[in-house]
Amino acid sequence: MKFSHLEDIDLAGKTILLRTDLNVPMQGGKVTDHTRILRLLPTLDYLTQRQCRVVLLSHFDRPGGKFVPSLSLAPLVDAVSAALGGREVKFGVDCIGPAARDAVNKLQPGEIVLLENLRFHPEEETGDAPFARELASLGDIFVNDAFSCSHRAHASITGIAQYLPVAAGRLMQEELQVLTGIFSDAQKPIGAVIGGAKVSSKLELLEHLTQTMDILIIGGAMANTFLHAQGHAVGKSLYEKGLKATALKILRQAEKNECRIVLPIDVVAASALQPQAPCTIADIDAIPAESMAVDVGPASIQLFSQALAECKTIVWNGPLGAFETSPFDAGTIALARIIASLTAKQRAHSIAGGGDTVAALTHAGLTQGFSYLSTAGGAFLEWLEGKTLPGVAALMQGGHPHIGGKATHG
Ligand code: 3PG
Which residue range(s) make up the domain with 117? Predict the structure, then answer.
């Protein structure tokens, strides 16, 4: 993949527009998971050491193109500052217009400012060119360090790149290097574990993986759709009735491509999806009519473990059960431990990504147990689907080294 890295551009003393993903989990105005912020540190250190003025751009949540006070990025200032060891981070109350320009103009070399939520302006999500141009006018160089947003053709992802020289930040570079490797030089056999609730939301993913994986393990409620399609009675389990033909097509396609699909052979069947609800282990041919499958059972975990032991590369996206509801997190935790153990013994290279997957690994205390953890959710999925992400395509095009109306630095 050809794109500029930070080293390829003369950044010294320049104003850098750094697209980050500060769409981080928060509760009561406090960040509850700092991963995405900490993963930006290599880029931030690199830029500030070169006396760049750093302008942080990000969205937060989905405010729908209007100012929503509870979705302000202001509370992120302290979190970014803390990650930088207490270094001051300034705040601009808007990402365009006089407030943004003023905040950027006041920056001294080596200083950082965070501008307000890009999605307070509807033009961000529509990829509006004048909006992108106005953002671009705030800086000299665009650095995209938000792989996790690169599936969005938004103004701050693809638009700014039309007006400024572009480089990938360290995190973007790392994500692309690792994730490109999945489909190019991964050690074989390569297996994927895909969980989650719905086949319909991961249809393209499953189809692509049957063409690229040697082994495909399917868990979560989406496995119920496959089990039902194969003729198993799944009781009150969540499944997609209308996708029987699709599920069977995926199974046939996998067989044709010599991709081995591994489905659960037993489940944890519960009377309700509630913490500590009465539950039992049931063979997939004996799921009680009044029960629902809420997790994979121990025999399935053993089967999955045997399949994973054959793999030299393992990719994981999606929990195997209703992991937010204890004790139905057992299958997901067991799987995480198996993959972490294969990784520790250097028998497999493991890559995980996706919001729920990372949350599950955090819950299991195993975020360090994998070879690589992507910061991306939707972008990770689209990458695994084999799609070209607009933000990555914009990096390849390299941007344009011209711009009018730059901010003047005071
Ligand atoms: C994410 O958390 O996956 C990114 O920040 C993208 O967010 P979005 O799905 O709201 O575009």
Answer: 6-174+390-397
